[in-house]
Amino acid sequence: MDAPRYRITNRLLSALEKIATISSAISESRLQLPVRLRLEQEAERRNTHSSTAIEGNQLSLEQVTALSKEREVRGDARQKMEVLNYLKALRWVFRQSRRDLNEKNLLRLHLLITQKLLGEERAGHYKKKPNYVVEGRGRVVYTPPTPAETPSLTRALLDWTKNSADVHPVIASAVFHHRLVSIHPFSDGNGRVARAGAQWILYRRGFDPGHFYAIDDFYAKDRNRYYEKIQQARELDGDLTYWIEYVAEGLLAACEDVHERIRTLARPSKEKITITPKQEVLLGVLRGQSGVGSAEIGKKLKINRARVHQLLAPLVKAGIVKTEGRARAARYYL
Fold first, then answer.
1. 233, 175 contact by CB (below 8 A)
2. Rounded to whole angstroms, how far apart are CA atoms 16 and 109?
3. Strand locations in the chain (E)
4. pLDDT, tens digit (0-9, with 9 covering 90-100), for 155-169
5. Which among 30, 32, 35, 134 is least surrounded, fewest beta carbons within 10 Å?
6. pLDDT at residue 78 above 90?
7. HSE (CB half, 13 Å, CA atoms) of 309?
8. φ and ψ of 332, to 5 deg
9. Is-contact 179 4, C-beta < 8 A?
10. Of 16-20, 55-59, 71-75, 105-109, where does mean pLDDT reach its minimum?
């Protein structure tokens, strides 16, 4: 792929410097585990709500939160599936983001986001027919590359992303985001895949290691501006300067929001606890689940039920793990 065109402006440098300062302060914060988990869960739900809302999903943040806990909510079945798919996709990204985002992973990401929404021949596959970007009144504002051009353009973008280690993570993520939505490689779900993929790149490069930042909130608060910035770069013959400035502005807003949340949530606690490596694994089993029984935990950790309860007891006492039910019927969640 052609090298992306952009300028390093004073505005961009200022935003990146502020992001670095705040991110460093967040990383150095001695956050207790319950606070870390809460920030991670909030970001997951807010990113899911905002990324699907950008595409027209009408479910509220409260409904998204309920769905993330596997609770029933009223609403359109397709919109609920969009949310559930995106939650699953983000959780998969969290687990996979130590690896490079390659073509196989990108197609898998699309499959997770669109399964049960697109037919099997389209979910997880490149588009077979031409597609277009239209405005609200139905006017075509952009014609993406053809289906025949799509695979090679997407592979070239992924190769550039992998080989751009010297590019700042925010810039690399922004370039990927814009180039993928402009290639528009899928019949549907391009925006959601681009935003989740952009997060993958940030995580892969060590940016936001706690998965705390909800940048999609920034995009969703003014969808018109989001689409205008994407289109602006196209009308400037691919000059991504203003788009990258915009993405940096959004990440700065996300950093500031998390920093403020930490000030609110990080209160001294009388209950001190040291998490053992085995307990860290146990927490990983519970993360993103609405409730897991001790038998299932024991199976995943390859330990007996008595050892499971030995690991759980201090976590429950400290309020890190919550329970529903009693005795053998008890289920545990974060």
1. no
2. 28
3. 133-134, 140-142, 292-293, 322-324, 331-333
4. 999 999 999 999 999
5. 30
6. yes
7. 8
8. -120, 140
9. yes
10. 71-75
Query: CA 140, CA 98: separation in Å to the nearest integer?
Result: 38
Write the CB contacts of 186 (distance below 8 Å, at least 6 apart in sequence): 110, 114, 122, 125, 126, 127, 193
Nearest partner of 179 among 153, 159, 200, 201, judged by Cα: 153
- CA nearest to 219, candidates 51, 93, 7, 97: 51
pLDDT for 270 beyond 60: no
What residue ranges define each of the domains in the chain, with the CATH number in brackets? Answer: 31-265 (1.10.3290.10), 277-333 (1.10.10.10)
| For range 243-261, the mean pLDDT | 96
Picking from 46-55, 152-161, 179-188, 303-312, which range would have the lowest pLDDT averaged per residue?
303-312
**Among candidate residues 61, 152, 150, 154, the one with its CA nearest the CA of residue 105:** 154
Q: Return the higher-pLDDT residue of 255 and 284.
A: 255
Q: What is the pLDDT of residue 325?
A: 85
> Tokens 């979910």, residue?
123
DSSP states of 149-195: THHHHHHHHHHHHHT-TTS-HHHHHHHHHHHHHHH--SSS-HHHHHH
Please name the amino acid found at residue 95. R
Cβ–Cβ under 8 Å, residues 154 and 103: yes
Q: Which of 28-32, 263-267, 323-327 has the lowest mean pLDDT?
A: 263-267
Q: Which residue type occupies 202? A: L
Q: How far apart are CA 307 and CA 300, in angstroms?
A: 13
**Burial state string for 206-230 with b = 16 or more CB within 10 A and e = fewer than 16:** ebbebbbbbbbbbbbeeeeebbebb
pLDDT surpasses 90 at 12: yes
